[in-house]
Design a protein that fits this description.
Blueprint lengths: L1 E2 L7 H10 L5 H10 L3 E8 L2 E12 L2 E9 L8 H12 L4 E7 L3 H7 L2 E9 L2 E9 L2
Parallel strand pairs: 4-5
Antiparallel strand pairs: 1-2, 2-3, 3-4, 5-7, 6-7
C-alpha cells in the first residue's frame, strides 16, 4: 500500500475513484484528498499497477470514515478490499471506522465484520446502509 499524493490523477486511480463516486465528482474528491489535512488516499499495488484504492477521512486520531473504496474489476474477489481496510486499521491504530454504502457493497462490509444498519431510502428506490467497525 502506498499513499497517493500525485498532483495529477493517474488513469487507473481515476477509474477506481469513478467506481466509488460518480464520474463527475472524481476531480473534486481527488482534490480533497490532495489538500485536506484530514483526508488520506492509498493505493494497493500489484505488479507495479494500482489495482485498488481506499480513501479515508479522520474524525479524530483513532476514528475514521471510509469515503471511497474500490478494486479493479479484474482483481475483485481476492481480498484486496479487506487488505486495504486492515492496512488502514492497523496503520492508524483505529478503534472506530465507518462507511455508508448501497446494497451492492453491504455484504462486503458485513463479511469483514462491520455492524450493518439500514438507513432506509435516501433517494427513491436506493436503500443506503451504515457500516460500523469498532474495537472490542
Amino acid at each position: 500500500m502506498k499513499e497517493i499524493k500525485s498532483i495529477s490523477i493517474e488513469p487507473n486511480v481515476r477509474e477506481l475513484l469513478s467506481f466509488a463516486t460518480s464520474e463527475k465528482n472524481v476531480e473534486k474528491e481527488y482534490e480533497l484528498y490532495m489538500h485536506s489535512p484530514v483526508r488520506e488516499l492509498y493505493g494497493y499495488d500489484l505488479e507495479d499497477e494500482i489495482v485498488g484504492c481506499i480513501g479515508i477521512e479522520f474524525l479524530s486520531p483513532n476514528r475514521c470514515e471510509i469515503k471511497h473504496i474500490a478494486v479493479s474489476q479484474t482483481h475483485r474477489g481476492v481480498s484486496i478490499g479487506s487488505k486495504m481496510i486492515s492496512f488502514i486499521w492497523e496503520k492508524y491504530s483505529l478503534s472506530f471506522m465507518f462507511a455508508e454504502t448501497d446494497k451492492d457493497a453491504v455484504n462486503f462490509y458485513k463479511n469483514y465484520g462491520f455492524k450493518i444498519t439500514s438507513l432506509g431510502e435516501k433517494c427513491p428506490g436506493v436503500e443506503r446502509f451504515q457500516c460500523i467497525l469498532k474495537s472490542c
